[in-house]
Amino acid sequence: MANMANYKDLTIGDRMLEAGSSEKFHTGDWRSLAPSVDMEKCINCLTCWIYCPDESVLVEDGKLKGMKMSHCKGCGICAKVCPKKAITMKEE
Amino acid sequence: MAKDIAINGDAAVALAWKQIDPDVCAAYPITPQTIIVEKFAEYVSNGEVSTEFVCVESEHSALTLCVTATSAGARTFTATASQGLAYMWEMMPIASSMRVPLIMAVANRAVSGPININNDHGDVMSARDTGWVSLFAENVQEAYDMSIIAPRICEHHEVQLPGLVNLDGFILTHAIERITPLDEKDVKKFVGEYKPLYPLLDVKNPISHNLMDGPLFYFPHKYQTVLGMEKAYKVAKDVLEDFGKLSGRKYKILEEYKCEDADCIAIVLGSSFGTMKEAVDQLRKEGKKVGVAMPRLYRPWPIAEIAKLLKGKKTVIVMDRHLSLGAYGPMFPEVVAAALENDTMPKMYNYIYGLGGVDTMVSDFVDVFREAGSGKAKRINFVGVKE
């Protein structure tokens, strides 16, 4: 039998009684392809950072630092919008 | 106690809500409900209530607004009928799943097609499974009283479910009857201050409502609603009793008329309860042991009360003012299921009557009792349909 949640552990009316809880929901589990950045080609234009729907592009001092994989769903938008083709999607 | 007044059913519902003075009302006009919202809009316009009245472009928007206003922390009410309720349907299970205790009056009317504006229970019965507490009124006084009772049941912190107050279209909505309203201060005291659980507008405690559930969470959440309904059943008993003390009008979850010593009883909803009482009186004069009952509370379905009522009866007639096409009327299988709680089953017959507003008179109900009592009835019968 499927291991359903116990109703006693759930809030009435499906309410989440805290803010920012999606941080804990690691949508990176859904991924089949992962972005791989060629830092040689990257010009730090940060177009990928603007487009990423999951805020998975890490930036420090205005420069691309890498990808935060806990929430990256592998959608490939970053690779598509990169003007230098510095990002490629690869099977993990 | 305030003086008696002459008022139609719709205006009586509006009067109850004027006395309650809710925070928000959003509704869209549809016959035969329109007078409720027109009257209430007058109260708003005259400054007699402090309600935020929102004009919307459809019933779907009306209910969506009411659901979100209630989850924000407002006491909310709306009203509709027929196609309007059908258009709201998408939001109805969302309201019960979100556990928002908003109240809606339904001026029961046939659902198209064919297009028809008259009374039957097709609208509310088609929305039966959406998780709303459902109360029925026999007359205008009860339409007023149920409007005051419903929020007390639904807002209970262990219930937290939306509620419907059903009144028969035209037969009650447009009929002027004499009623005894309560004093406004008594209504306000009875209903009490609305204390929402986890309101969205509590900005110091940010929360989210209506999240997505995977299979492992959806089913347990539905089970929580089952428990909420069970609680509503218990709370309804207490609230009806409290209301009896306040008003002198003693209501029960299952209303019975001359059922105790009856061999043959009928079960019916809404205004026809009154008509059937008259039919019972006529047959009693002939010495026939007949009675009639009305589930005031249709959801949650009062299984224990129905089972107790059916105990030892020879014949049970279930009058349905709606039909699940290709099966039975909606109430018939539920009465049969309740009868399973007993050791013996009575003979049970389903009568479909009054669809699309066909007037069903005392003499029609007398005929139903005679036919069912004679044992010549079919399992499902269509009152007055010519073959």
Mean pLDDT of chain B: 97
Query: What spatial form of chain B do the alpha-carbon principal axes imply?
Result: globular
State the major sheet of chain A: 2 strands, antiparallel
Stretches of chain A where pLDDT is under 50 for at least 5 consecutive residues are none
> What's the shape of chain A?
elongated
Helix-strand pattern of chain B: EHEHEHEHHEHEHEEHHEEHEEHEHEHE
What structural class do helix, strand and pairing data of chain A support? Answer: alpha+beta
User: Can you name the CATH architecture of the largest domain in chain B?
Assistant: 3-Layer(aba) Sandwich
Overall radius of gyration of chain A: 17 Å
Radius of gyration of chain B (CA) equals 21 Å
Structural class by helix and strand composition of chain B: alpha/beta
List keywords for this structure.
heterodimer, A: 92 residues, alpha+beta, Alpha-Beta Plaits, two-stranded antiparallel sheet, two-stranded antiparallel ribbon, 21% strand, B: 387 residues, alpha/beta, Rossmann fold, seven-stranded mixed β-sheet, six-stranded mixed β-sheet, 40% helix
Polypeptide structure, described:
The complex is a heterodimer of chains A (92) and B (387). Chain A has a two-stranded antiparallel ribbon. Chain A has a two-stranded antiparallel sheet with strand order 2-3. Chain A has 2 helices and 4 strands, in the order βαββαβ. Chain A has a domain of 54 residues: Alpha-Beta Plaits. Chain A is of the alpha+beta class and 92 residues long. The two termini of chain A are 31 Å apart. Chain B has 387 residues and is an alpha/beta fold. Chain B has 13 helices and 15 strands. In chain B, the strands form 3 sheets. Chain B has a 7-stranded mixed sheet, with helices on both faces. The radius of gyration of chain B is 21 Å and the shape is globular. In chain B, helix 10 links the parallel strand 10 and strand 11. Classes of the chains: A alpha+beta (92), B alpha/beta (387). The interface between A and B is medium-sized, with 17 and 25 residues.
